Amino acid sequence: MTDLIDRDRVQSSGDFDVSDGYVNLLGAENRSNGFGQNIMQSAFYPLIYRPWRALGTRVLLGQSVASERALARELLDLKPGDTVLDVACGPGNFTEWYGGVVGPEGLAVGLDLSTTMLGQAVAATRHDNVAYLRGDALDLPFADGTFDSASCFLALFLMPDPMQAVHELMRVIRPGGHVAIMAPTTGPIGLFLQRPGVFEAVSGVKFVGRKQLRDALTGNDLTITKTRHVGQVTYIGAVK
Ligand SMILES: C[S@@+](CC[C@H](N)C(=O)[O-])C[C@H]1O[C@@H](n2cnc3c(N)ncnc32)[C@H](O)[C@@H]1O
Questions:
Q1: What is the DSSP letter of 160?
Q2: pTM score, two decimals?
Q3: The domain containing residue 31 runs over which residues?
């Protein structure tokens, strides 16, 4: 996986720090932008994240882990041999599964800011073709067109500039490659949270609008392949 990292972008010519089982491109730097991200970087939350996520998805969205994975596979058009990037991978709940789908000829890379989430991801890794990296979704350390596909699930709302992350996602896939995004979007609570205010200032949490997401993709010459709104959440896929 280190061969995929663009040395010019990360301004490094030496060895990468892999002492924790993932490539750490941020050293000891803390890039938290509020309590939302602080929770992701805590010691406790990553420990319970997978069952918590599965329960939340079942209760709030009526989806099982299997049905959500099937949707991710469809949106990303994942095939054996593909190289896929999972941006804001958390404890690797999608990355590890991608590794199984793309098989030994493929590669699944998970990127996240949180050392504790990545610690869980590394501990759960069973596939040799799965690798993790600590980096920032707003400034991906890869050259244009590096991946066959890239996803970002349930994370844009934690980022100070979610649309920059969408642009980065689009940038690193090849022409003909696919992106998949899952994000809490509109609805009464979402509309309220979209407005900058005290909540956003304290939490760092920022919701994106459905149209904003669609426009970002189509405005960069991607073609939307599928959109599914489930409650407060939008799943959207597009091809470059
Ligand atoms: C709610 S978890 C989502 C994990 C997984 N993608 C999922 O769908 O279950 C959000 C993740 O986004 C990560 N994250 C937030 N901002 C980030 C950024 N700027 N760059 C990389 N990861 C980020 C957090 O550290 C956290 O692990």
A1: S
A2: 0.94
A3: 2-239
